[in-house]
Write a structure and sequence with these properties.
single chain; alpha+beta; Immunoglobulin-like; Rossmann fold; 11 helices; calcium-dependent phospholipid binding; C2_domain_sf; Copine_C
């Protein structure tokens, strides 16, 4: 799936120095990995400590693959080296799971960087060239305005209404009321979500060195209207308005559309007219990102195997043995790796933890609560509840039975969705089962999976230890009569070298499973949630990123130093 990242900052510390005015900030975004890669830089905004950059950054993202991006801020210096204004690190999964897909990070040197992610739609590109005619001067009699324009996309959000976000900012044309601006190249996915009849705005401003730019006029239009206006030349000039009065005109010199035929596989085909212009968008399948951006929460349930085949937990080398040095056993590694990904999408991070295969008071239990409370706090709470079981007087027993935890989790998932619907929201659950052996009753398990497929639930089963798991392959193939596949089985040992390998494999099917469930029940994503300023979580950055960037003469930026960034170990 493709995401787009947008950035802004507030209350930055001025780096220009005494008597040198206000900083001209820009940001560089770097994908942090064992080999870090610069994704690009924003435009520079002059004389402001509260920049709102129009540039967006597009990248690929997978649910099960942790991804971090560093945002490095600089004050642009014409002669000499750019001055660092600080840096912050964002976890992309945490951004997606945050309210409004937005988070803030404080900079140790002063200020806050805000990052927002959202779905990027691959719907081609527009090359736009605009000319202003008789723009109304805002500078008085002795001077002329210095106009630039912004392209803005409309965002509709429940509870907030309509907002207009800048996605492109042109260069300024000095002292000119009939400017011809340089070409604007902008993604149609970013500008109009791929719908060329979706309203967009063109806003023209008079540039002010103070950063308090003055609106000269604005107009609302669509991409299709821009294409039509190009064909009509000056006869099709668009009127700018300010306070109800005309304040000039905009002539479209160029509005060329490229790549509309190269839609990604998950996009429905669109109708294209004889002149190659896409006129409308047919109904399309929603995406995982649209559900998450609409406020759908992912709830995690964990079920742990306490059958006797795991061995005596007091003996080193057995699967439940707790190491004195604090290192994790395979159960704890699987819980930590998978749980740390999924907990970012659950606002309250309250998780039920179940056990199965143990005997209490002479009775074998195939679904029991781990720990003293029904729902624990986060992954740390799951690990504590897991360890609490060994102080409860259980006797590890058998056989290996999944059916009760599957049906219990399915009921809980259905109840969570009903509760969410009452609040106009959506909820989807993931059951993580960790086991050391094959199920004792394949048919009963298959029936339980079929029944559970009617609930908003996916099931991830991780096999630990050296058992022969060949008989578990039926889990990947088990489907309900309606065809919904909800289970994924993964052997831990095949991925024991890397938590990223484990999470990528175990979680790769969940986005499609979630979409399939909701669409099969005619439930579509809610409107994208936009967070108000007081609803955005702002976190403190513990330390600046150790990252050295080289700014080449050809505008290329490369990573030239710093410690390798890797969290890909258990």
């Amino acid at each position: 799936m493709k995401l787009q990242l947008s950035l802004r900052a507030s209350d930055l510390k001025n780096a220009a120095g005494i008597g040198r005015g206000t900083s001209d900030p820009f940001a560089v975004v770097t994908h942090m990995d064992t080999t870090s890669t610069v994704l690009g830089k924003t435009e520079t905004i002059k004389n402001t400590l509260d920049p709102d950059w129009a540039k967006v950054f597009v990248f690929d993202y997978e649910l099960g693959t942790p991804m971090h991006v560093a945002v490095s801020l600089y004050d642009e210096v014409r002669k000499g080296e750019n001055i660092s204004m600080g840096s912050v690190l964002f976890d992309v999964g945490s951004l997606l799971g945050a309210y409004g897909n937005t988070k803030g990070k404080t900079i140790k040197r002063g200020g806050v960087v805000f990052a927002r992610v959202g779905k990027f739609e691959e719907n081609g590109t527009m090359r736009l060239k605009l000319k202003g005619i008789k723009l109304k001067n805002t500078e008085g009699f002795l001077r002329k305005s210095d106009p630039f324009f912004e392209l803005k996309t409309r965002e509709d959000s429940d509870g907030v209404g309509t907002s207009w976000d800048s996605v492109f900012r042109s260069k300024t044309v000095k002292d000119n009321l009939s400017p011809i601006w340089s070409d604007a190249v902008v993604s149609l996915g970013t500008l109009c979500h791929g719908n060329m009849d979706r309203p967009i705005k063109i806003c023209v401003y008079d540039y002010e060195s103070s950063g308090e730019h003055v609106l000269m006029g604005e107009l609302e239009t669509t991409v299709n209207n821009l294409v039509i206006a190009k064909e009509q030349e000056e006869d099709g000039a668009l009127s700018l308005r300010k306070k109800g009065s005309e304040s000039g005109k905009i002539v479209v010199l160029k509005a060329d559309i490229y790549g509309v035929e190269n839609l990604s596989d998950d996009m429905a085909a669109a109708s294209v007219s004889d002149d190659g212009v896409r006129s409308s968008i047919k109904a399309k399948t929603p995406t995982f990102i649209e559900y998450i951006s609409g406020g759908c929460e992912l709830n995690l349930c964990v079920a742990i195997d306490f059958t006797g085949s795991n061995g005596d937990p007091r003996i080193p080398g057995t699967l439940h043995f707790r190491h004195a040095d604090g290192s994790k056993n395979d159960y704890e590694k699987a819980i930590s790796a998978i749980g740390s990904i999924l907990e970012k999408y659950d606002s309250n991070q309250k998780f039920p933890v179940y056990g199965f295969g143990a005997k209490f008071s002479g009775v074998v239990r195939h679904c029991f609560q781990c720990g003293p409370i029904q729902e624990v706090d986060g992954v740390g709470g799951v690990l504590s509840a897991y360890q609490e079981v060994f102080r409860s007087g259980l006797i590890m027993s058998g056989p290996t039975v999944f059916t009760e935890v599957i049906l219990t989790s399915a009921k809980k998932a259905a109840d969570a969705q009903v509760a969410a619907e009452k609040e106009g929201k959506q909820a989807y659950s993931i059951l993580l089962i960790i086991t050391d052996g094959s199920v004792s009753d394949v048919n009963a398990t298959a029936e339980a999976l079929s029944a559970a497929s009617e609930s908003p639930l996916s099931i991830v089963i991780v096999g630990v230890g050296e058992a022969d798991f060949n008989s578990m392959e039926f889990l990947d193939e088990a489907k309900s009569e309606g065809g919904r596949d909800i289970a994924q089985f993964v052997e831990f040992n095949a991925h024991s070298h890397s938590p990223q390998s484990l999470t990528s494999t175990t979680l790769q099917e969940i986005p499609n499973q979630l979409v399939e469930f909701f669409t099969s029940h005619d439930q579509f994503p809610n409107a994208t949630v936009h967070a108000n300023e007081d609803e955005i979580v702002v976190e403190a950055e513990e330390e600046e990123i150790d990252l050295s960037l080289d700014f080449g003469d050809d505008a290329e930026i490369t990573v030239s130093g710093g410690e390798p960034f890797s969290r890909n170990v258990f």
